[in-house]
């Protein structure tokens, strides 16, 4: 009995996962990374870890151990960073940190309800970062940090703060760069709340209950503020007047509110000669139902606008006028109608248009006729049938670099028609689903050029790939033929892209029983091969012998019964970093199967039927970090086999 449970325990320990941690070097890490590094238990209190021994404890971290007050050892030592995480901390004694010289203090997931005014006395010239998320603060502890001359990062997120005072952040005017107040219960910003924060760059007010932002709130300006996050509040319009003084504002995130229109509510009267210049406008998941003409009259430049998830049914003419916009993402909006001149005002600026996941059935003729700069167009997952492609795409033909027409419900793409209409010689990326053919042949791509690098033909009912299919598109680097029903890949299918193809994926898409080894022989540049989720039962031991650049091999979820010794060879596969045979039918691993693979870091053999692992099955795998063998039938192994060294030596 006893021995059996010990064996089971040993089995769990060794066979579950064998991880060898890689330690990042201290020199390269930033303060967040340093904090997360694992250090040894402190000599003066083994419940916490310390990067150094007293009198200078360096980085101290106490996690999930009970400390209702700060640990004693801290008071009499120097400490660089202190992080108390979920320790039941209820209070900070005044003056306690007085002599520590702390640079960063993080007290997270505790029960602090208030911070004494003298909590940080003594840290005036040392504390740069004060981080207090997930506590029970109900007010901003202004007096505690007012004298911290260096404080540049203040995080009070996930508390219960309801109010803000006029002088909440007084004292931090010349130091504070980042202020995080997200996930509190702030309903109102009072006038001049943030007055004088001369170098504040980021202000995060997401996840509060703001329903309005008074024009006076930012009136004194924050001359460096470039990022304002207001996501997940209850704002019903964009507070243009309040934003006007923020001359450096570049990113405005006002997603997940209840905004119903981009225009200001005119019943307020005077507003708005305001003209914002933004790099990013996030307005996803609001309640915008329509974009009438001139919706952007308060926006002069917006490089990228994100409208995803608004219930916008219709795009009217001049919807984006008069802004200059480079990229529009309007995904999952339920769009059904687009005016033929909806985008006309953007003819000289629009570069990326992503309308994927909508309900479009047609595209008006001439929609893109004057668009000289359009590079990327995605119409993925709509129900589009393009009646006269010539008309639709006419003028973008020489510029379009990326076109995505994939999706079950989009009408079939006839590649010949597509090439006829657009002569897509410069195209770099093409993604389609349905085609009017079940086999890929060279003729399909006759008028494409060598610029084409990414090709995805998925959900297409393809059955075969013929010899020399890629002879006109010799530059393909990434090929995805997933979700098809491909039974034949002729031996010379990839002859012309052997030197260029880096990634080849055919997941849920291959119906053969054997890996098409002969076809793969051409792929000497290939770095990633993914044949997962197919029905492969066998693979020749020479399948990968020409794939000398292979880094990642994904063969999970097949029915492979055996990996023959010699399939992987040290002198050929010197770059191979990761192999997955998860969820196959392997029964045993013989001697020297994984041998001499100098770059191999991860080897996944979980969920097979492995009963037997021969001695020296894994050998000379110097970089191996993870060997996983979970979910096999290794119970019959002798005690001896649990010795890790037994596998490796
Ligand atoms: C912490 O140290 C300071 C001086 O270094 C001392 O004045 C104070 O009493 C100490 N507090 C505690 C609780 O030990
Ligand atoms: C515009 O603002 C007024 C005053 O707050 C409000 O009564 C009205 O409902 C708003 N209009 C819309 C369309 O929300
Ligand atoms: C828009 O993008 C261009 C090019 O990246 C950049 O020079 C410009 O500053 C951006 N405009 C704004 C308002 O950020
Ligand atoms: C898209 O159209 C289908 C019917 O054609 C409808 O069931 C669905 O709700 C529409 N989706 C949206 C987001 O409007
Ligand atoms: C392609 O264009 C040629 C002439 O320009 C025409 O004869 C042919 O029918 C077109 N093919 C398709 C598929 O539209």
UniProtKB/TrEMBL annotation:
InterPro entries per record: Leu-rich_rpt, Leu-rich_rpt_typical-subtyp, LRR_dom_sf, LRR_TM_domain-containing
Keywords of this entry: Cell membrane, Leucine-rich repeat, Membrane, Repeat, Signal, Transmembrane, Transmembrane helix
A Pfam family it matches: LRR_1
Compartments in which it is found: Cell membrane
One of the protein's GO biological processes: cell development
A single Gene Ontology CC term: plasma membrane
Primary localisation category: membrane
Transmembrane portions of the chain: 6-27
Classification via PANTHER family: ANTIGEN BSP, PUTATIVE-RELATED, LEUCINE-RICH REPEAT-CONTAINING PROTEIN 15-LIKE
Designated name of the protein: Chaoptin
């Amino acid at each position: 009995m006893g021995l059996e449970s010990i064996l089971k325990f040993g089995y769990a320990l060794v066979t579950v996962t064998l991880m060898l941690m890689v330690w990042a070097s201290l020199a390269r890490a930033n303060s967040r990374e340093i904090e997360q590094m694992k250090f040894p238990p402190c000599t003066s209190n083994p419940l916490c870890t310390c990067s150094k021994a007293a009198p200078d404890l360096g980085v101290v971290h106490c996690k999930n151990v009970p400390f209702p007050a700060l640990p004693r050892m801290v008071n009499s030592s120097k400490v660089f960073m202190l992080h108390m995480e979920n320790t039941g901390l209820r209070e900070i004694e005044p003056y306690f940190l007085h002599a520590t010289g702390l640079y960063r203090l993080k007290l997270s997931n505790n029960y602090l309800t208030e911070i004494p005014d003298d909590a940080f006395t003594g840290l005036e010239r040392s504390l740069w970062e004060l981080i207090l998320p997930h506590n029970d603060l109900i007010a901003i502890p202004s007096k505690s940090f007012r004298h911290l001359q260096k404080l540049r990062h203040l995080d009070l997120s996930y508390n219960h703060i309801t109010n803000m005072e006029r002088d909440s952040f007084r004292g931090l005017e010349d130091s504070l760069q980042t202020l995080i107040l997200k996930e509190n219960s702030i309903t109102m910003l009072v006038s001049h709340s943030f007055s004088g924060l001369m170098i504040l760059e980021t202000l995060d007010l997401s996840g509060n209950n703001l329903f309005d932002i008074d024009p006076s709130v930012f009136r004194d300006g924050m001359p460096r503020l470039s990022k304002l996050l207001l996501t997940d509040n209850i704002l019903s319009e964009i507070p243009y007047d309040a934003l006007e003084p923020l001359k450096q504002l570049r990113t405005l995130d006002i997603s997940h509110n209840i905004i119903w229109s981009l225009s200001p509510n005119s019943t307020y009267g005077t507003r708005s000669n305001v003209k914002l210049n933004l790099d990013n406008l996030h307005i996803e998941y609001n309640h915008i139902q329509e974009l009438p003409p001139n919706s952007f009259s308060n926006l002069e430049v917006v490089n990228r606008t994100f409208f995803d998830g608004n219930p916008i049914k219709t795009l009217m003419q001049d919807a984006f006028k008069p802004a200059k916009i480079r990229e529009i993402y309007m995904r999952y909006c339920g769009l059904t109608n687009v005016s033929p001149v909806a985008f006309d005002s953007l003819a000289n600026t629009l570069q990326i248009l992503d309308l994927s996941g909508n309900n479009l059935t047609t595209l008006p003729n001439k929609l893109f006729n004057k668009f000289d700069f359009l590079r990327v167009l995605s119409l993925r997952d709509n129900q589009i049938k393009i009646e006269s492609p010539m008309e639709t795409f006419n003028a973008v033909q020489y510029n379009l670099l990326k076109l995505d027409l994939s999706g079950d419900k989009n009408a079939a793409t006839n590649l010949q028609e597509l090439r006829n209409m657009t002569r897509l010689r410069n195209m770099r990326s093409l993604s389609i689903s349905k085609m009017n053919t079940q086999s890929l042949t060279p003729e399909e791509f006759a008028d494409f050029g060598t610029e084409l690098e990414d090709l995805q033909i998925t959900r297409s009912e393809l059955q075969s790939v013929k010899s020399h299919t890629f002879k006109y598109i010799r530059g393909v680097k990434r090929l995805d033929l997933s979700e098809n029903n491909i039974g034949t890949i002729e031996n010379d299918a990839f002859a012309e892209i052997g030197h260029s193809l880096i990634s080849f994926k055919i997941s849920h898409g291959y119906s053969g029983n054997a890996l098409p080894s002969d076809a793969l022989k051409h792929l000497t540049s290939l770095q990633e091969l993914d044949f997962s989720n197919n029905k492969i039962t066998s693979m020749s031991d020479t399948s990968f012998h020409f794939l000398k650049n292979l880094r990642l091999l994904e063969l999970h979820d097949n029915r492979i019964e055996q990996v023959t010794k010699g399939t992987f060879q040290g002198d050929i596969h010197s770059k191979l970093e990761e192999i997955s045979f998860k969820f196959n039918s392997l029964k045993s691993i013989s001697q020297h199967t994984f041998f001499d693979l100098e770059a191999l870091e991860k080897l996944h053999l979980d969920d097979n039927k492995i009963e037997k692992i021969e001695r020296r099955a894994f050998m000379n795998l110097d970089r191996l970090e993870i060997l996983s063998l979970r979910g096999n039938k290794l119970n019959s192994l002798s005690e001896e086999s649990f010795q890790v060294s037994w596998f490796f030596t």
